[in-house]
Amino acid sequence: MESWDVVVVGAGSSALRAAIASADSGAESLIVDGFGVGSASGAQPVAGLAASIDELDSTSHRDDTISAGGDSTDLTAAARTCGEAVATLAELERWGLVLRRREGGLPHAAEAPGHTVGRLTGCGDSTVREVTRLLEEQAIKRRIQRRSDLVPIQLVTDNQQVRGLVAYDVLSGELKSIQAKAVILATEGHQGLWSNPNDGPGTGAALALTAGIQLRGMDSIPMHPLTARDCNMHIPLDVLGSGGRIRRESGDDVGPEEVLGGESCVLDLRGLEFDAIPWFAQTASRVRDRLGLDITTEVLPITSGVAATTGGIPCDESGRVTFDGHTEEGLPAKLWYTGLYSAGRSAHNGMHGEGMLPGNLMLDDMVSGKAAGTHAAQWIQKTEFGSSSIFNESVKAANDLILSMEMEGGLPVGQATEKLTLAMREVDGTPNEAALSRIREIKEAGIRVADQSRIMNTELVSAIRLKGLVLVAEAIASPG
Fold first, then answer.
1. Domain termination site, one of 355, 382, 409
2. Count of domains for the chain
3. Per-residue pLDDT tens over the stretch 222-250
4. What is d(CA 243, CA 269) in angstroms, rounded to the nearest whole number?
5. Can you say how many angstroms the Cα of residue 322 is from the centroid of all Cα atoms in its chain?
6. Range of the domain at 260
7. What are phi and psi of 171, to 5 degrees?
8. Which distant-in-sequence residues (6+ apart) come within 8 Å of 140 by Cβ?
């Protein structure tokens, strides 16, 4: 059995930042992602990183965040995260991020819907890719170990304290037990519910659900207004601050609200600023390859789509996973699920509320990842590993899960995926009995794999992720 101080589950910026922070604080860290180095760099861009580089402080950024998120926004989380934005951007620049710049040498800060001033910084449509690449380099420099051949199946817990996890080893076909003093869930969101499970299987949220943790903020499903119609390709909002315009098909300029409201609109990038064209070359290439359109001469029909999600595992400012409990005196209190942390898109810290301000998603990834990694590394200094005997039951449960997928009677992966996607089309964040009934039908029927070999079985990997997504879908559609 492997034993590590901190195990980070995830592949994206929040997971990498958490691992870097834990290593910098002296912990022996392992990244478990099941996707591979560079996989997160292929994520579709939503927006750059918001930072108040032209303001005296982050007060206005905080206020805009609260306006976008509404009453459900955690004011403390918004102030803390926005306050870290400039330092976060500066750190990325020190590590080698080549930012788009303006005359005078300062980073370019594009305007974006919801921001009272220009704040979107980054590398155009390559921000996700470049930030991920930098963080992977920093992780390699710190000799942080990474296991991309392991697919997490179940957390190992003991009296509401995490002790490690059980994962499926794709190369050997075996179940692996990994002992840890702390586990950080920092995976992708669950946006794959509305498209394809590989676009966002919500692994962290699913692992938390199987451990009995109730998710929060799942009624907030942020919609991205620049989604190519009938294609599910998302265009970064940064283009709107660089000459891009949303228009009705009649030609009138409108805002994102009209797209989100269901109006038939197009994205006009023909007037993209000259110095911005190289920074959005990837967007031009994607549109040309997938839709056969030339953005320099043609407009792009758009609609709203789910590009990213924000709800997830409840946590505090240090990333510690919390749950409702009682003190020794019997008073209601928020308690820590000891040793368990969440960050980024697995987490719900109240930063985003009901609406997500452009540029805050990547910012929250970085800030929450660093906070969770730092606290975890400090906490493990005064704790010990749990008993290895408690892993036996979890390994058996994980094996039973795989065995259930090898039996006759379940739904094939493709059919279950289609049924789940159709059910989620009716879900807008509010309880939906009809959708819930369809989701539970999938859950009760089970998922079946045709290939019963456990070695290098990518179908089994898809089935495991889909099984977790069904649990997440049920949590979203359920009342309360």
1. 382
2. 2
3. 999 999 998 889 999 999 999 999 999 88
4. 7
5. 19
6. 225-305
7. -70, -40
8. none
